[in-house]
Amino acid sequence: MLEKTFEPQAAEPRLYAQWEESGLFAPRQDTAAGAYSIVIPPPNVTGSLHIGHALNNTLQDILARYHRMKGKAVLWLPGTDHAGIATQMVVERQLAAAGNVGRRDMGRDAFIDKVWEWKAESGGTIVRQLRRLGASCDWSRERFTLDEGLNAAVRKVFVQLHKEGLIYRDKRLVNWDPHFQTAISDLEVEQREVDGAYWHFAYPLADGVTYEHPVAFDDDGKATEFETRDFIVVATTRPETMLGDTGVAVHPEDDRYKGLVGKSVTLPITGRRTPIVADEYADPTKGSGAVKITPAHDFNDYQVGKRAGLPMINIFDAFGRLLSSEFDLFTWGHRAPNADGTALADEEVVGETGFDRIPAEWRGLDRFAARKAIVARAEEEGWLREIEKTKHVVPHGDRSGVVIEPWLTDQWYVDAKVLAQPALKAVEQGDTVFEPKSYEKVYFEWLRNIEPWCISRQLWWGHRIPAWYGPNGEIYVAETEADAREQAMADYDSEVALTQDEDVLDTWFSSALWPFSTMGWPEKTEDLERFYPTSDLVTAADIIFFWVARMMMMGLHFMDEVPFRRVIINGLVRDEKGQKMSKSKGNVIDPLGIIDELGADPLRFTMAILSGTRDIKLSKQRIEGYRNFGTKLWNAARFSQMNEARRVEGFDPATVEQTINRWIRGELTKAERAVSEAIEGGRFDDAAGALYRFVWNVFCDWYLELAKPVFQGADEAAKAETRAMTAWTLDQTLKLLHPVMPFITEELWAELGKEGPARETLLIGAEWPVLPDAFIDASAEAEIGWLVDLVGEIRGLRAEMNVPPSAKPPLAFVAPDAVTAERIARHRDLILTLGRVSEVGSAEAAPSGAVTFVSGGSTVALSLAGIIDLTAERARLEKEIAAFDSDIGHVNKKLGNPNFVARAAPEVVEEQRAKLAEAEAGKAKLQAALARLSEIG
């Protein structure tokens, strides 16, 4: 006999160990049913399981377990990402906490050794946590983005793309983190709203130029008064960058400044002559309509500089300080690349340095200290015209927390525009599809406007760039140093010293090769033959650009095939009010804490049933509710055991005769269809919903209730058939539910298997039920459907009219037809028991004091006179209706206020609309009940 409750804390580790020991996580050799493959989005090796991981990996595991049970050779390939900047940060902090020297004092090789030591000791945390979730990955194939196999793949890809001219070195603007002194990707940049200001500076016009500036306007906006100015006002949120200004931009259609285009200003402090250019980036409606252009320190200015051919002058060093040395690595100015994005020839580089522009007393000054110094100088010299306080968004490093500096540096780039074309075409023609399809638009938008991809990072932990420099600056790109030396021999008569590039590759570069490098490429392996391209990718929308698109580009370029046939985009998990989870808000739900307390299955089921929306509103109460769903199933199995429902050797559900058994067979068949189609279609919420309805509403609430009289009756044949049918249905139910709730179903499979014929396999390896259409019996469905609807109406009416649970009012059918009369006769006892009525009869007209309703085409009367206090009930209903009216009025007043709708958070407005709909529905229900009372008298 089953224990009273399922204890996940004890059962889950034991069951997972059984799965691993069984070898069923590995793909089967028999491929008659085909293959199914999926690669895990590799979590950072530094990471711990968060709620997003729980969602993403639950959905992947549902797919893997489902296709495994369908008989396919399933490969769910796991692994972790070396997470360059995150891992380096973790180890540096550990070294500092232990009182050790910093990495620069330690040296590169010694530091890398320390990181590998950390990885061996602590790098497996996230993998262990995925096991706790129930992830059925093939751990024997686990990969790491820095393992030797992937290292070889990365080197080969880099060298080949370089030979093809698709990887090159260039000086361009990047997101620079002054704390870590490295370029970072857009994904590692966090936009934060901060208090700031616009400083309005008056830049004097050069050469004695003046112009008439409008200062007053009529009602039509036409200038009526002018003043003569020998300056132009610009506004900036970053005064510290002005030392690197190389232009002032005005809109070409701005009449105020048309005559100044082609003229120059004299840049304060530096005295540099700086041109005024026309560019549509300048917005005539904002500020003065004129903007300072610092191409080396602003992404928008960089584009203006490219269009206008302005010099690009770095004024900061790698730490975000004003330059302190004219020999700083990045001090030399550089004219913009050509308009088509190609690099300039060496002779086109200009030689002015940012160092020359910086007053001696400011050299080496931190950028924010420089800001204060420049504003003070502007105020002192009279060219500060206004300080306008504002809130604005400023980019910060997501790990360092410091303000990101747009910075002009020499980096390695991939010509993403060329690689993007096949990736665009593949989705356009349906070789890869997105679910939901709307995300294809996001994919297209990015790829059609793609910029060169900066792939170098100034870190030590990662794939070191396979490029070596000769004594005269020659670059030799090769897979090994030996190959690079061989190339160098063509330029020199003897062996020369080569120095490898200090930089490492962007983490996303190795991740872009993940679907095929993890299967052994560049070798021609059996796994590549069997499992590439993969079947599905399940991932989040925020990395469509950074990962999905790049995998498409690399897969098509090196494998000549898409890396996956379908991309399923999962939503973002928010709190119950729709707000983003964050530690500062205290609204984070820790999946490991949930697993500790409630078990993995309730969490997984919640993730699945809520997965159909872009923003998933999650609360612990929802998860607890689905724990109750598991408890309901467990209790149903205990009930079955108590009533001797055991599996029977050779039982054939096709031969059952009892109406309830033919009915449940059909309902199970429909549930199997719904669940299979939903999982195949990536609609996990529909699959979970179908499972919930069948298990709770159909099997537990109705079938077992309808089976009770049979179990307790004297018809031994009916009893034996119903016991066998109950056991068989429970078995099929466990199979259908297993991909979503694997632990409790595996435990029940084992426990119920102790009686009857021996199990041939663990549930994870069982065959998915495929039930024939003939199992759906129309006559049984109509018969039981009639009974279920009738009892449901009776129960609903009792609740609506506040009938005491102990009361058993009489029930009468008004002039029933022959078919209904026969059904009444067959199911009288069930109607009496389940409807809690004293008698079931028939009458030519509804009895006095009865409430009528229609069920199954028949009018039915429930006599309530003398059972409920009509006066008190009418008063109760009227009072509750008045309360709803008050709520409706209050909410309507809020929603009718334009200021509330405009200013309140979207989730608050949505909450009020939901409250209104709930109140209106509740009121309508009570009004219907009040109307029914009038039937009684």
State the main characteristics.
33 strands, alpha/beta, four-stranded antiparallel sheet
DSSP E strands, number: 33
Q: Between the first and last Cα atoms, what is the distance in angstroms?
A: 53 Å
Describe the strand arrangement of the main beta sheet, using strand numbers.
Answer: 6-5-18-20
Nearest-integer average pLDDT: 92
- Largest sheet descriptor: 4 strands, antiparallel
The gyration radius over C-alpha positions equals 36 Å
Number of contiguous helices: 28
Query: Helices and strands: which structural class?
Result: alpha/beta
Q: Based on the structure, what is the oligomeric state of the protein chains?
A: single chain
Percent of residues in helices: 40-55%
Shape: globular
Q: Unreliable segments (pLDDT under 50, ≥5 consecutive)?
A: 329-350
Strand content: 15-25%
